Amino acid sequence: xxxxxxxxxxxxxxxxxxxxxxxxxxxxxxxxxxxxxxxxxxxxxxxxxxxxxxxxxxxxxxxxxxxxxxxxxxxxxxxxxxxxxxxxxxxxxxxxxxxxxxxxxxxx
Length: 108
What we know:
The protein is an alpha+beta fold and 108 residues long. The chain is 34% helix and 18% strand.
C-alpha cells in the first residue's frame, strides 16, 4: 500500500488517515492488543526493560476510538496524538471513546 516509506514517515497522521479512508476498517471488528507494550527502540525491539505488561485487549469497530483508548492506557492524551486528531477530524471515528459507553469485561 505504501510506495514511498520516507514520504509516509514525514506525514504519519495524514498518511494514516488516508489509508483508513481507503481501507474502510469500520466495516470489521478491530482488536487493540495492549498485553505486552514495547516502550523504546521501535519495532526492532529492545531488552526486557523496554517491555511493559498491561494485560488489556479491546475490540470495536471504531479505529479512532480504539487508538484513543490505547493512548490513555499508555498515559497519553488522545488530543496530543496527530493520527487520532486527524482521524477524528476526517469523520473516521471519535476520539471521545467514552461517549461510546465501552464495557469492561474481566477474563481469567
